[in-house]
TrEMBL record:
Pfam family, one: DUF489
Gene it is expressed from: hflD
Coiled coil: none
Membrane topology, from the record: Peripheral membrane protein
Entry-linked HAMAP family: HflD_protein
Family designation: Belongs to the HflD family.
Protein name per UniProt: High frequency lysogenization protein HflD homolog
Gene3D superfamilies the UniProt entry points to: HflD-like
Naturally occurring in which organism (per UniProt): Vreelandella vilamensis
Subcellular location: Cytoplasm; Cell membrane
Main location: cytoplasm
Keywords: Cell membrane, Cytoplasm, Membrane
InterPro entries, sorted: HflD, HflD-like_sf
Length: 213
């Protein structure tokens, strides 16, 4: 995926940056649901998530999601549902909030953070050789998720078409997508995002979404 040039600057206010990061979480949640049900995925949304996850040292905040908020449009639309402007999909919302919960558990586990960092460094080297969305890279991302985050007591149980979920590379793709959700959940926390703010600062989130629309 090529970065938009000139890059579209993200708003400087914390709420807008939190909204963009949170959009990445819910974009991942939405794609997990789409993969599990249909086996298909929105390519632009997918490429954005995977690129963000393998690029562990981006040049700027905007570079994380490819330079333009429309690369996170799927997630931004989910946030519109979260603040009550659109119909919310309860399954996708459950995946999204579960990713935030997992991120908090990961953040408190220094050993696992180090282990995950090592694994993602290996994945980045793979991506430089094969390309970010090559199936070897996706398989490694899925393996990294399976060996770290899926060992927590809190686990994300993905619902969908059983035959689809068992098809070739589908478990790896789903786990890679969940890993991308964790990447954006960590970014959201780094930008000052907290779960209580989703309840008590909903107006700020609405204004941020207006700025990004």
């Amino acid at each position: 995926m090529t970065t938009t040039t000139p890059i579209h600057r993200a708003p400087d206010n914390p709420a807008a940056r939190q909204a963009l990061a949170l959009a990445g979480v819910f974009q991942a949640a939405s794609l997990v649901d789409e993969l599990a049900r249909t086996g298909q995925v929105d390519q632009r949304a997918w490429d954005t998530l995977i690129q963000a996850t393998v690029d562990t040292n981006p040049d700027s905040f905007e570079a994380i999601y490819g330079g333009h908020p429309n690369n996170l449009r799927r997630g931004l639309d989910m946030l519109e549902a979260l603040v009550g402007r659109k119909q919310a999909d309860p399954v996708v919302l459950r995946y999204g909030f579960s990713l935030l919960l997992l991120m908090n558990q990961l953040r408190k586990n220094d050993n696992m953070m180090d282990q995950l960092g090592d694994k993602l460094s290996h994945v980045q080297h793979q991506a430089e050789h094969f390309g970010s969305t090559h199936e070897n890279v996706i398989a490694s991302l899925g393996e990294a998720y399976q060996e770290t985050l899926s060992t927590f007591k809190t686990r994300i149980v993905v619902q969908g078409d059983p035959s689809m979920l068992q098809s070739r590379m589908m478990p790896e793709r789903v786990r890679a997508c969940l890993m991308a959700g964790i990447r954006f959940a960590l970014l959201w926390h780094q930008q000052g995002g907290r779960r209580w703010k989703l309840i008590f600062q909903r107006k700020a989130l609405r204004r941020a979404l207006d700025d990004l629309s």
